[in-house]
Specification:
The structure is a single chain. 26% of the residues lie in helices and 14% in strands. It is built from 13 helices and 13 strands. The strands form three sheets. A seven-stranded mixed beta sheet has the order 8-7-6-9-10-12-11, sandwiched between helices.
Length: 434
């Protein structure tokens, strides 16, 4: 056998991901003679030739897929079967507008009815596959409306109504938001962690106000709410809790914060996630969007009693870990006296009743208190969880909310298109996406 190269051959897991099927399906296809693997000459593992995989992928997108029964748990049946129900339900069901290889892209697939959504992202404004949902029978799919995306993020649907923005702009603004139920749990725990001299707040990178809602619900009054995206300003101006706050789209790097020195209880915000997320290419501190690196300077100017910053889980892992450690040390000594106890913890919005798997890191610092106090704060957040991963047994908390639970409480907006294959949904295995 010739030497194997990564370009020519794929491991079984990679092959399954490329085709959008399970490893069990590949084994079934091997037994049926549909797709034969080779064996690695050293370790004996099954491997697949890239050319063979692409040939199968072309078969999957052939027009005959709607004319023959097709089950991704086994080889195609030779019997001619009726067209999927979605083709005969009426004129409101249009044809699929994707090729099969696009529809089954393992990184971008429609949401399943009976599972939480994958992570809502700003790029959903471009209407990728994951900004769509399959019905409960995996027979039809359609786009999410902005109101539905708001619900996936834990907002009331009215948050996007009455604004003069396009649907894409609204979805883009929602993609960066902190889900309010998660924000409320974090902020409630932070407020319980100390006695406060100032029940005031300054928020940077406020977005459309997800974290803001957590701060105001905890009883704090904002002095300033800032976000460089002008689309966010109308969202913030609609919040009655911010009626006395200064709301601005000014770049925080050119904003004078010294006027708030020693007047702020909580400094909070969600500095741009893109430098640390996989979607943002994880360029980190080399990215000009790295506002997080400005936070030690901002803290020294404001000297808040506490700070809370939200970011993606990728901030603490891999090549970003060294930067993260340096940042944490800088935050502890932000005022030059090492007076802040600082820790970071990761929470999943799905655990707090949001129908979406969304893992985020929260960095919390308490002035004049040890890191142990922050640890106690995170334990209180943990105690506020309302839901659980369905794979975990817990009689006291229901399983994560699903997309279908959310949609079943709303009117169907229509716009359905025909999906292919009744068992495709069984091959989906959503994890987190940043």
């Amino acid at each position: 056998m010739k030497a194997l190269t990564g370009r020519d051959w794929l491991k079984v897991g990679d092959a399954a991901e490329l085709l959008g099927v399970s490893e069990k399906t590949l084994r079934n296809w091997d037994k049926a003679g549909k797709l034969r693997p080779a064996r690695h000459p050293i370790n004996g593992y099954r491997i697949y030739r890239a050319a063979d995989l692409h040939a199968v992928k072309r078969d999957l997108q052939a027009p005959t897929v709607f004319q023959h029964s097709f089950d991704l748990n086994g080889p195609p049946s030779a019997k001619v079967a009726p067209e999927p129900p979605s083709r005969t339900e009426g004129p409101d069901v249009a044809a699929m507008h994707w090729r099969a290889e696009v529809a089954l892209d393992p990184k971008h697939r429609p949401q399943l009815w009976d599972k939480p959504s994958s992570t809502v992202r700003r790029d959903w404004r471009k209407l990728p596959q994951e900004a769509h949902v399959l019905d409960q029978n995996c027979a039809r799919y359609r786009r999410f409306t902005p109101q539905e995306v708001a619900c996936l993020q834990g907002f009331e649907p009215a948050v996007v109504e009455g604004l003069s923005f396009s649907n894409r702009q609204l979805i883009g603004a929602l993609g960066n938001a902190v889900p309010p139920p998660l924000a409320e749990a974090v902020m409630a725990a932070v407020v319980e962690a100390r006695e406060w001299k100032n029940r005031t707040a300054v928020e940077i990178c406020a977005g459309i106000g997800g974290l803001t809602r957590g701060v105001t619900k905890a009883g704090f009054e904002h002095l300033l709410c800032l976000d460089i995206d002008p689309i966010c300003v109308p969202f913030l101006e609609r919040l009655p809790e911010l009626s006395n706050a200064e709301i601005s789209a000014q770049d925080l790097r050119y904003t004078d914060f010294t006027r708030f020195k020693n007047r702020v209880g909580i400094l909070s915000g969600g500095p741009p996630c893109q430098p640390w997320s996989s979607g943002g290419l994880r360029r980190g501190s080399e990215d000009d969007r790295d506002i997080l690196g400005e936070m030690p300077t901002l803290i020294s100017e404001v000297r808040p009693e506490a700070f809370v910053f939200e970011n993606v889980a990728g901030l603490t892992t891999g090549q970003n870990k060294r930067y993260f450690d340096r940042l944490m040390n800088a935050l502890k000594d932000a005022d030059g006296s090492g007076s802040y106890g600082v820790l970071a913890a990761k929470f999943n919005a799905a655990d707090f009743g949001v129908p979406q798997v969304r893992e985020r890191v929260f960095i919390v610092g308490l002035r004049g208190q040890p890191a142990a106090a922050v640890h106690g704060c995170f334990e209180k957040v943990w105690e506020r969880r309302t839901h659980r991963n369905p794979t975990i047994s817990d009689a006291h908390r229901p399983a994560w909310k699903t997309v279908g639970e959310m949609l079943s409480q709303r009117d169907d907006p229509g716009g359905w298109r025909a999906w292919f294959g009744q068992n495709v949904g069984e091959q989906f295995d959503w994890g987190t996406s940043e």
